[in-house]
Specification:
The structure is a single chain. By secondary structure, this protein is mainly α. The chain has 22 helices and two strands. Strands 1-2 form a two-stranded antiparallel ribbon. Strand 1 and strand 2 form a beta hairpin. Helix 11 packs across helix 13 and helix 15 crosses helix 17. The longest helix is centred in the middle third of the chain and has 53 residues. The radius of gyration is 24 Å and the shape is globular. The relative contact order is 0.19. It is a multi-pass membrane protein. This is Oligopeptide transporter, OPT family. InterPro entries: Oligopep_transpt (IPR004814), OPT (IPR004813), YSL-like (IPR045035).
């Protein structure tokens, strides 16, 4: 479907900027909560595009390019929130007790601006002159085209907005039921695997979370199967084996035994799987990335020599502006790092540490942005192994700052070096994820005849808005819940958020600088990861790339709690079954898109409810302000949660199918 492009269409408008910022604020808050709970985030481009089209349809002069700018601004939410994969580590090591606004805002904003700048020169090589598939960028463009090109598309846009609202309302109510103790927060079962002194233990849990069901649907069946395999490896093999080798202490039940061994030993094996899978993935991308960069420079040289006049749809930010903004951004980056060290035990090393930090942000940032941008084109931004980039970045940062600080090493100095490494990694990760997002958005723009430089400006607006939201939401959740592994001296609730990625990153930083990393467990994980890499290679080869088993997905399932992974796997399977059930029916494609939006609503509704609940916890000073006294047993509340959850998911899938058919008939 082609879209006619006026010579100068309406793109950046005041109403579009305001709408994009409002969607960014909402989605960033949702993403921060989801990332802290499960260590995963979701792509916001498609739901943002649908909301934009439904609301801007009230204006007759709204264009597809204007809607594209709105989704470009809002997409910053799905990416910039990924800095919470690192930042809570500063709370976990006891460096911060609270999340300060300006250092956090500065790290997000500076990294985000550099992420946009670093990927501007890559657009031609990796987008307009590339055959990379950009699955999510293409999907967002198709949603925009369908929504703007026909009456049927307009009807689907309105149905899509209703889908987001219904999904959000039902998931918020379901989460409220769990907060009120009317539904079990988790459905789980743990048991002994044998008898006597060598008896092991294992089990399985599933969080009562529609957001996780939605996340599984959006990730797809391939990632879902990989996570299912990881769950079997963790809880079907490693936990029973290692609990049998480590007898339980007196009075410890099956759940305590299994969860204790998993948290202390099995998840470190999972960290090894994640690390090696990330390194292998990135190594495989080295050749195409270098080829793409070479092509970009050659194209730019030819265009300059031939004096070609560029079409509007090929106009990036001028390279002079890109270079100038990059250099200017390094000044506040240096000031930010220097102020981070102010008054601490590393003051005597401030100059060399700041120099190393700025140099690392510059060089590692360019590398991370290029790699992440390429991965967005290859597998989509949601599936990009950003955690792998974070692992490699923290290892490099820890080694670099550890080398500078080795002459004054001591307990306080070690903690300060770990904190500084985490802070530098936060900036580099912001560079990486925004670079990831920029190229995906530019692909969407290419398909709807947008102007690249206007999209790049739009993303900078999104970076600024998202950077304002991350610090207060993070501090609110810190004060209300706190995080696993942190002192949480000022937290009210007794149920800290897992923040699994930040826990992994801070553990690696402490291990590298302190020299006490559990290399044996990481080594076992590396061996398992290499085996998975081989299996994935063979599976793709013999199925002609039809099937795969992403090692990173398997590693995440070993590393993350089963309570988080199980509903994600269920969501992936039910989403696949739903898509297969409707694909041959009338309006099947519309039904699929509406189903995606319902699932996006699940994530937004539950996440925003829990952010609001955190606010209520802080205001009331009570850990469970909504809890209602009732006589239900734990088992009964699990059954109720299961029945209500199944009814909601089944009912809204049916609603999606009916609406897809109704849209097609209009």
């Amino acid at each position: 479907m082609s879209i006619a492009a006026p010579s100068n269409p309406k793109e950046i408008t005041l109403r579009g900027i305001i709408l994009g910022i409002l969607i960014t604020l909402i989605f960033t808050a949702a993403q921060v909560y989801l990332g802290l709970k499960v260590g995963l985030t979701f792509a916001t481009s498609i739901p943002a595009a649908v909301i934009s089209m439904a609301l801007l349809s009230a204006f007759k002069d709204a264009t597809i390019q204007e809607n594209n700018i709105v989704q470009t601004i809002a997409s910053a939410a799905g990416t910039l929130a990924s800095v919470i994969f690192v930042l809570p580590g500063l709370l976990m090591i006891g460096w911060w007790a609270h999340v300060p606004f300006w250092p956090t805002f500065g790290a997000c904003a500076i990294g985000g601006v550099l992420g946009v700048m670093y990927t501007v020169p890559l657009r031609r090589a990796l987008v307009s002159q590339s055959n990379l598939p950009y699955p999510e960028g293409v999907a967002a463009a198709e949603v925009l085209k369908v929504g703007m090109a026909s009456r049927e598309g307009a009807a689907e846009g309105k149905a899509g907005l209703r889908a987001v609202i219904w999904g959000a309302l039902t998931s918020a109510l379901f989460a409220a039921g769990a907060a009120a103790k009317l539904l079990a927060a988790e459905v789980s079962v743990y048991f002994r695997t044998g008898s006597g002194a060598t008896a092991g233990a294992t089990g399985i849990g599933a969080s009562s979370s529609l957001a996780l069901i939605g996340a599984g649907h959006l990730m797809g069946i391939t990632v879902g199967v990989a996570m299912g395999v990881g769950t079997i490896i963790a809880w079907g093999v490693l936990v029973p084996l290692m609990t049998s080798l480590t007898p339980a202490a007196a009075g410890v039940d099956a759940a305590g035994h299994a969860l204790g061994i998993w948290s202390k030993q099995v998840r470190m094996i999972g960290a090894g799987v994640i690390g090696i899978a990330a390194i292998v993935t990135l190594a495989g991308l080295a050749k195409p990335i270098l080829g793409g960069l070479t092509s970009a420079m050659e194209t730019a040289r030819k265009a300059k020599l031939e004096g070609a006049v560029l079409d509007r749809t090929e106009m990036d930010m001028p390279i002079f502006i890109v270079g100038l903004v990059t250099l200017i951004a390094l000044v506040p980056a240096g000031w930010l790092l220097a102020s981070f060290l102010q008054g601490g035990p590393l003051m005597s090393l401030a100059v060399p540490l700041v120099a190393v930090g700025v140099g690392y942000i510059l060089i590692a940032g360019i590398f991370a942005a290029a790699v992440c941008g390429y991965m967005a084109g290859l597998i989509g931004s949601s599936n990009s192994p950003v955690s792998g980039i974070a692992i490699l970045t923290i290892l490099g940062a820890a080694l670099s700052v550890g080398f500078v600080g080795r002459s004054v090493m001591g307990p306080e100095v070690a903690q300060a070096l770990i904190a500084f490494a985490l802070f530098v990694t936060t900036v580099v990760l912001a560079v990486a994820v925004i670079g990831n997002d920029n190229l995906q958005d530019l692909k969407t723009g290419q398909l709807v005849n947008a102007t690249p430089w206007k999209q790049q400006v739009g993303l900078l607006i999104g970076v600024a808005a998202g950077s304002c939201v991350v610090p207060p939401v993070l501090e609110l959740l810190n004060h209300a819940n706190g995080f696993v592994g942190a002192p949480n001296l000022d937290s009210i609730s007794s149920e800290p958020l897992a923040a699994p990625q930040a826990l992994l990153i801070s553990t690696l930083a402490k291990g590298v600088i302190g020299g006490d990393l559990q290399w044996d467990l990481l080594g076992y994980g590396v061996l398992i990861g290499l085996g998975l890499v081989v299996i994935n290679f063979l599976l793709k080869k013999f199925s002609n790339d039809k099937y795969s088993l992403p090692p990173l997905g398997v590693g995440l399932a070993i590393y993350l709690p089963s309570a988080v992974i199980t509903p994600v796997v269920i969501g992936a399977v039910t989403g696949w079954l739903f898509d297969r059930a409707v694909e041959r029916k009338v309006g099947g494609e519309s039904a699929k898109r509406i189903g995606v939006l319902v699932m996006s609503g699940f994530i937004v509704g539950e996440s925003l409810f829990n952010v609001a609940l955190a606010g209520l916890i802080v205001l009331s000073g009570k850990g469970e302000p909504l809890a209602v006294a009732n006589s239900m047993s734990e088992g009964a509340s699990m059954v109720v949660a299961l029945i209500v959850g199944v009814a909601i998911v089944w009912g809204l899938y049916r609603w999606s199918a009916r609406n897809g058919e109704a849209v097609h008939q209009k």
